[in-house]
Amino acid sequence: MASGALAHLTLSQTHVFCEESAAPVIKSYSLDPMVHPLLPSSNTTTRNADLIDMKELVGPIINMLSSLYCLVIGPGLGTVPITWQPVSEVMRKARGRLIPFVLDADGLKLVKKMLDLVKAVALDIEKIMSESPDKTDDYRAQDAKIVGKLAEALGGVTILRKGSYDVILNGLASLIQDTEGGMKHSGGQGDTLKGSLGTLMSWGASYHDRLWDSGENDSDQGSGGRIPLMKKRDIEREIESDMRLSPTAFCLLVAWAGSGITRECSRGVYKAEGCSMQASDLTSQVHDSFLL
């Protein structure tokens, strides 16, 4: 469903990397995505993960990175170490080339296990998330403080915390997405969110490379290369003005927009289908929701 959302939100081609036994199942959903059965799993190999030649295994995927704009990591990944090793190697190579990731589900478990994928520090995630909020704050401010600490500890990544309203933070600035969604949340709706985020992040590569004239004024944060250090007021100034967005501000708006698209999809499907709605129904609503 994530690849379906990518396609319905204007991407011309999506690639799905999976293990061999999953390929025919994924392909049976749709002829649109290019399916590559390149990843190992405990079902398709009896070799110990430490004995696998990772360079040979991930070579075909790494060779494709030059034509990929964003990686969506997590849906269907699983938690088997023999799968995690090649995926983590691809993530390191992609990070070195400034290719963004969208992480969810088992992808978050992978990062928790290998923190160097985002920032090489020791970090007690459970301790941060279990901290008692300041009771003088309202519930939204409490969420923002706790998740903001986690985003900052992870090196300034952008976090989208899903809930009755969605909180988007990067340790400096925050946004709230509270567009009305459907009255039913079907398991799997997150795939629409991940697909939407992946598409919007892919657009970012072209935006920062200035492949079209956006009509915005240049900011002093630059448009490419390494992401510059920014302060909260810099991000707020970009978002609220007609300045060209830095990668940092762009990520915040991508998360806010992707969340809004998903919520609008859910609202539209629930209006049409009621409680019989399924997560797969959201895909057909993606394009119309984006136009709204």
UniProtKB/TrEMBL annotation:
Catalysed reactions listed for this entry: (6S)-NADPHX + ATP = ADP + phosphate + NADPH + H(+)
Keywords tagged on the record: ATP-binding, Kinase, Lyase, NAD, NADP, Nucleotide-binding, Transferase
GO annotation (BP), single: metabolite repair
Ranges of residues in domain YjeF C-terminal: 1-292
GO molecular function: ATP binding; ATP-dependent NAD(P)H-hydrate dehydratase activity; kinase activity
Protein name, UniProt field: Ribokinase-like protein
Lineage: Eukaryota, Fungi, Dikarya, Ascomycota, Pezizomycotina
